[in-house]
Amino acid sequence: MLTWKDVIHYSVHGNPKPDKRVEKTEAEWQEALSPEQFRITRKKGTEAPHSGALCSIYEAGKYACVCCGTPLFDSTIKFDSGTGWPSFTQPIKENAIQYEKDTSYGMVRVEVMCNTCDAHLGHVFPDGPAPSGLRYCINSESMELIQNAADHE
Ligand SMILES: [Zn+2]
Questions:
Q1: What pLDDT, on a 0 to 100 scale, did the predictor assign at position 147?
Q2: Distance 84 CA to ligand 1 centre (A)
């Protein structure tokens, strides 16, 4: 399980290697994404709180990167943080996410990105629930919910 210590370690010393890489030009991403998805994932934007479609959804499934389809989070580790953004306590795999120190807006935060395609997802904070103590605060627009096939039977 990842903790804040691991997050800081990755943001300072470099991230774990992803299983694969997806790289496209800015024009290709713009073509593939909606204007809002492009603004958030490729331009490090943020959606308004409580605006995201995935904010209050707790159906079973995996949350995948909207840009490259790589699974990032599982519904079992989603929790209601009350912030207005989908929140998770762990990534689905240790190497699914990359971490970078973000000093924009006069704050020191840790930005989280898709480790496969560098899509901006949101930030991670050390004030989440036990046992990991992590709160991944993620834009709905950065993800799509892939519902478990078993739930449709
Ligand atoms: Zn991605």
A1: 87
A2: 22
